[in-house]
Amino acid sequence: TQNGNNYGLELIVTDENKKTHYNQSLNINRKNHLSRQNFLTTTNGKISYKNAFLALQNVNISLNTSIINTATVDCFFSDLPIALPPFSNKPIEELKYKPDSSFVVSISNSNFNIIMPENGFYHIRFGDDNNEGLTLYTFDEAFPGISNNKEMVLATRYIMTKQEYETCTNTTDYKTAIDKFWLALGGSNERAKELLKRYYNRVKESNKLYTSYNKGWKTDRGMIFIVFGKPTQIYKNSRGETWLYGIENNPNAFRFTFYKTQNPFSTNDFILERSQFYKDQWYFAVDYWRQGRVYNVFER
Question: What does the alpha-carbon distance between residue 288 and residue 36 come to, in Å, rounded to a whole number?
Answer without folding.
Answer: 42
